[in-house]
Design goal:
Elements lengths: L3 E7 L3 H12 L5 E3 L14 E2 L9 E2 H14 L3 E3 L3 E5 L5 E5 L4 E9 L3 E3 L15 E2 L2 H4 L7 E5 L3 H10 L5 E5 L9 H8 L4 E4 L2 E7 L6 E6 L5 E5 L2 E4 L3 E3 L30 E3 L11 H20 L2
Parallel strand pairs: 1-2, 1-8, 2-5, 8-19, 10-17, 11-12, 11-17, 12-13
Antiparallel strand pairs: 3-4, 6-7, 7-8, 9-18, 14-15, 15-16
Bound molecules: NADP nicotinamide-adenine-dinucleotide phosphate (NAP).
């Protein structure tokens, strides 16, 4: 690993793998760090993806990511199943250190670290995580067979989680702080038509209760302020995401919400030779297809940058 690489890609969602496919086809011999435990990104935790163009009958999220990974590998990407723990981006040769202690040097870096699930911030949320509190229905839904569980949120993620959980749960109560959903119409209508989903409007969860595992939720009506308690054995949190910027926060410019800033309609960050794409940059669209598109842009930007070096 002592030679200086052309491009190192950090992150393995649709953005990272697409950047790798393009960079590899441009003969740049990219190295992609896909993470030690989270390879494939957020789509690994979804079920059927119905809106990725080219799949008439939909495709399972993990299958889509596996195909992208194999495609990146086929053209010569070096895939490394490890995390990058440190980056020094300021010099013309960027220096990255991975979880095994290897140091990688590169002329350019593509940041594609994606985003992480947001927590509500309840007193007992962390303590009961894995004991009834979850951020991933596809990972944990199976454990809630014939039980009554709650989902918090009003966006597409919450609807997707709630709908998926009806496969197992006897009832899913979707708790939303307002009286209308943010989710897309098609997904909302599907949920409204699902007899196992109940909507609890204008309510917020103020704590999750239970000793060894979740037994109930403390709730507050957001219009009247009235507090109540209701029994649930599970709480699925689906209230959005936060950009995974911790490796670069003090090195590249980020906006007020922590998303990495890129120049104009490119993937150039404020640091020469450093490009950013996918959910790390985008809080507006956040789709697999837009992430893949921006990964393509990042590889093209890196290729042009390297050719003018
Ligand atoms: P989102 O659209 O930002 O929705 C977050 C939801 O959580 C909102 O309803 C918000 O309430 C609520 N919320 C935020 N903070 C909260 C808090 N502290 N307490 C209680 N509720 C809180 O996030 P998302 O659902 O993860 O979706 C993100 C993007 O991914 C969207 O563009 C979405 O279309 C896309 N996505 C697409 C699919 C699909 O097409 N299959 C699936 C999943 C996600 P308010 O509405 O009051 O702000």
């Amino acid at each position: 690993m002592s030679e200086v690489k052309n491009v190192v890609i950090v992150g393995s969602g649709p953005a990272g793998y697409t950047a790798a496919i393009y960079a590899a086809r441009a003969q740049l011999s990219p190295v992609l760090y896909e993470g030690s435990v989270t390879a494939g990104g957020a789509l690994m935790n979804t079920t059927e993806v119905e809106n990725f163009p080219g799949f008439t009958d939909g495709v399972m999220g993990p299958d889509l990511m596996d195909s992208m990974r194999k495609q990146a590998e086929r053209f010569g990407t070096t895939l490394i199943t490890d995390d990058i723990l440190e980056m020094d981006l300021k010099s013309s040769v960027k220096v990255l250190k991975d979880g095994s202690g290897n140091v990688v040097k590169s002329k350019s870096v593509i940041l594609a670290m994606g985003s992480a699930y947001k927590e509500i911030g309840l007193k007992n949320e962390k303590r009961l995580s894995g004991r009834g509190v979850s951020w991933c229905a596809t990972c944990d839904g199976f454990f809630f067979r014939d039980q009554e569980i709650a989902v918090v949120g009003g966006g597409d993620s919450a609807i997707e989680e709630a709908t998926f959980l009806t496969r197992f749960a006897s009832k899913v109560v979707l708790i939303h702080r307002r009286d209308s959903l943010r989710a897309s119409k098609i997904m909302a209508e599907r949920a409204f038509a699902n007899p196992k989903i109940e909507f609890l409007w204008n309510h917020e969860v103020i704590d999750v209760l239970g000793e060894e595992k979740v037994s109930s939720l403390a709730l507050r009506n957001t219009t009247t302020g009235v507090e109540s308690k209701r029994d649930f054995t599970g709480l699925f949190v689906a209230i959005g995401h936060l950009p995974r910027n911790e490796l670069v926060l003090d090195q590249v410019s980020v906006d007020s919400e922590g998303y990495v800033k890129v120049k104009d309609n490119t993937t150039h960050t404020n640091v020469t030779g450093v490009f950013a794409c996918g959910d790390l940059v985008d809080h507006r669209y956040r789709q697999a297809i837009t992430a893949a598109g921006s990964g393509c842009q990042a590889a093209l930007d890196a290729e042009r940058f390297l050719s003018h070096e």
